[in-house]
Design a protein that fits this description.
With 223 residues, this protein is of the alpha+beta class. The chain has helices at residues 4-9, 40-53, 104-116, and strands at 22-26, 29-32, 70-75, 78-82, 85-89, 126-132, 138-141, 153-159, 162-166, 176-180, 185-188, 197-199, 214-220. The protein has a 7-stranded antiparallel beta sheet with strand order 1-2-11-8-13-6-3, with helices on one face. A 4-stranded antiparallel beta sheet has the order 7-12-9-10, with no helix packed on it. Strands 4-5 form a two-stranded antiparallel ribbon. Bound molecules: N-(carboxycarbonyl)-S-(naphthalen-2-ylmethyl)-L-cysteine (MD3) and fe (iii) ion. N-(carboxycarbonyl)-S-(naphthalen-2-ylmethyl)-L-cysteine (MD3) is lined by residues 128, 130, 138, 143, 153, 155, 186, 188, 192-193, 195, 197, 199, 216, 218.
């Protein structure tokens, strides 16, 4: 018998905000409230370095639409979309260079969150970095471009809060609406891994660290 909830409450400085709480969403999906809060300033410094080498860009969908989310990547592979389709690419198509290396603090956070949610072996090789501004949205989709769908996805929310849409295994399933705030981490695995999901248009606001932006990191085992 383990008392994980109580472990969270008196964890000293292991990435949990004091009182960090684990909130199960569905089979295989769990929100770790505030898990990345103390690490956030360091994550933002690393993101600044990454966008110096691999700048934000609005990718084009295979259907020819410009995504309202701005994206970049770090790690051994990055998610890219263009007229030819979606794929993981070891190089940034803008520069032809490898994506920036995944910072140790990113990898450490993602593996600790996954372990906390019961995925002890998670070894992410890709981190997609999404930037939202007021009005930016992400329409309902599944993440199925990764080779091994048994690996979870770990997501980290920074900056302005968002309403996350968490649907079922069919596009037509009415999604639940979940508020994700600065420092929240979600682990999506098991039966939730192929759930349809999206992000409602971002509401305006002013975040102390990020101003009018929300940044989301998703850690994946892509290759
Ligand atoms: C549920 N990003 O990059 S993260 C994406 O906030 C993406 O930027 C959103 O969806 C964002 O593909 C949501 C949460 C998330 C990520 C992957 C999932 C939820 C998921 C995969 C399966 C089920
Ligand atoms: Fe997704």
């Amino acid at each position: 018998m383990t008392f994980d909830l109580f472990d969270n409450l008196d964890a000293p400085d292991d990435g949990h905000a004091a009182g960090g709480v684990r909130e199960p969403l569905a089979d295989g999906a769990v929100v770790l409230r505030g898990f990345a809060r103390t690490l956030a300033p360091q994550l933002l410094d690393e993101i600044c370095v990454i966008i110096g080498r691999a700048p934000w860009r609005h990718m084009i969908t295979p259907g020819g639409l410009r995504m309202s989310v701005a994206m970049t990547n770090c790690g051994q592979a990055g998610w890219v979309s263009d007229r030819t389709g979606y794929r993981y690419d070891p190089h940034d198509p803008l520069s032809g260079e490898p994506w920036p290396v995944m910072p140790a603090a990113f990898l450490d956070l993602a593996t600790r969150a996954a372990a906390d949610a019961g995925f002890a072996e998670f070894a992410p090789d890709a981190c997609l970095i999404n930037r939202y501004e007021p009005g930016t949205r992400l329409s309902l989709h599944q993440d199925r471009d990764e080779r091994d769908l048994r690996a979870p996805i770990v997501s980290v929310s920074l900056g302005l809060p968002a309403v996350f849409l968490f649907g079922g295994l069919r596009r037509a399933d009415r999604p639940a609406r979940i508020r994700l705030a600065h420092g929240d981490v979600v682990v999506w695995g098991g039966p939730s891994r192929l759930a349809f999901h999206g992000v409602a248009p971002l509401a305006d606001g002013d975040h102390p660290l990020l101003g009018r932006e929300r940044i989301n990191l998703t850690f994946r085992k892509a290759m």
